[in-house]
Design a protein that fits this description.
The chain has 445 residues and is α/β, with parallel strands linked by helices. It is built from 16 helices and 18 strands.
């Protein structure tokens, strides 16, 4: 039976070994490299992903990762290939040397040619299904299958129940990558159990965070016009899966016990959500706060914050809250950030939170349970000693996640990727993609 029109046909995959590139990491790819006891660091690194000023979590991560690598290694030849959404264009910094139009498969081929011709030693790909074009982001395969240098892919989402398209794309990304980076033990297990990726190919490197001091929240509150308040905070791009409704519903009970509490929701509506629905979700949240009589205690900051502003905002929080609605959240950069700042944290038990907040580093409450959120917040606000102990535990744990240490871990992975590429690791193949409302077409290697 023929594959459905909206799936990638895994039966059409055939494998062809490409010609090897002669130089890796600035040295000849010969048996002498096999005998080398200490592989060289890559000199020319290309990072592919979203980049600021595009407003999304992947863009912030890519920018921070590049900054950290440059700060740690002086990698003056680090370059970025930025992915643009739709018809958008951005004023990028100098390090962005090439741009991909997410829906234009020809631009993916052009990037591969550019990187090969410029003799880059290694590519570090940031992967999230939604940022690349094609069925389940399959356009990125057109880039990967033509690259001649080692590839390290950071997986920002690892799905435990992928559909057929997502499964095929992830398995092919894994085959085309020399190493894979995940940010949680859970993601590593899913990658092995669901997608069949060998554990020896996976490196666990935590989400990076700024190296912030451990300070009292009151230092920041006056400049933010919330002096004298107990501050509950959630920040990040707004979307309906974040569970803000539950926290707003918890506010009446919290205010009965602590009348000086404010809940700050900081961040613009996610661009993709805004393109589909406008600011409808934010308006619904504001209407809910008004209906419950807590509109004066729920503060919305509808904008994208600079790193300096974010440091002050997070610094002001007495308790940080991630009330996300679903377990399948492989990583939360905002949660990692809050830990690095030494915040007391309340969260629902999504995958990343369960790992980060173990051993007393935070409090976990059930999904979509306003009463449990209220009870946890009241308990921490009532008990200064317990809140301070949680803060310190989170802060100490977060030291392993600061960006300079993450950059060092990435470089070790880069070196391993190059050392393992004595023989070509890439496999080139055509992928049959059947786009919606169109006949099947073959994208050739």
């Amino acid at each position: 039976m023929a594959a459905p029109n909206n799936t990638l046909n895994s039966q059409s995959i055939r494998f062809i070994r490409p010609d090897a590139r002669r130089t890796l990491f600035g040295v000849e790819s010969t048996s002498s490299l096999q005998r080398a006891s200490r592989p060289l660091r890559p000199v020319r690194i290309a990072v592919i992903g979203n980049h600021l000023p595009r407003q999304c979590g992947i863009a912030t991560f890519t920018t921070d990762l590049c900054d950290a690598i440059v700060a740690e290694y002086g990698a003056s030849q680090l370059s970025v290939v930025a992915v643009n959404d739709g018809q958008s264009s951005y004023t990028y910094p100098e390090r962005v040397r090439f741009e991909i139009r997410e829906g234009d498969i020809a631009s993916y081929r052009a990037v591969a040619g550019y990187l090969n011709s410029c003799n880059f030693n290694l590519v570090c790909l940031q992967h999230e299904y939604g940022i690349y074009g094609g069925t389940a982001g399959s356009h990125v395969l057109e880039l990967l299958q033509h690259l001649a240098m080692p590839v390290v892919t950071t997986l920002h989402t690892v799905l435990s129940e992928p559909d057929l398209n997502q499964r095929i794309v992830m398995q092919q990304i894994a085959a085309l990558s020399d190493r894979l980076i995940v940010m949680s033990e859970y993601s590593s297990r899913v990658l092995q159990d669901v997608f069949g990726v060998p554990g020896v190919k996976i490196d666990l490197i935590p989400h990076g965070i700024p190296d912030m001091p451990f300070v009292e929240p009151n230092i920041f509150k006056e400049s933010l016009a919330i002096a004298g308040k107990s501050v509950l905070l959630t920040f990040g791009l707004l979307s309906p899966n974040k569970g803000f409704e539950s926290m707003i519903q918890a506010m009446p009970r919290i205010l009965t016990n602590h009348s000086n509490v404010v809940y700050v929701i900081a961040g613009a509506t996610h661009p993709q959500v805004k393109a589909r629905e406008g600011d409808q979700y934010r308006l619904q949240l504001q209407a809910l706060a008004k209906e419950l009589g807590v509109e004066e205690n729920v503060i919305f900051h509808n904008r994208f914050f600079s790193p300096q502003e974010m440091a002050s905002l997070v610094g002001s929080a007495d308790i940080y809250i991630t009330p996300y609605r679903y377990a399948a959240q492989a990583v939360s950069g905002t949660l990692a950030y809050a830990m690095g700042a030494g915040k007391a944290i309340i969260s629902t038990p999504y995958w990343h939170a369960v790992e980060l907040l173990a051993d007393g580093r935070g409090a976990l409450v059930p999904f979509e349970d306003a009463d449990a959120l209220a009870a946890a917040a009241i308990e921490l606000l009532d008990n200064d000693a317990a809140r301070q102990a949680m803060r310190m535990s989170a802060y100490i744990y977060g030291r392993q996640m600061v960006w300079n240490r993450v950059a060092q871990s990435y470089m070790r992975t880069f070196v391993r990727a190059g050392a393992s590429r004595i023989q070509p690791a890439h496999l080139r193949f055509p992928v049959r993609v059947a786009e919606k409302n169109a006949a099947s077409q073959v994208v050739n290697a």
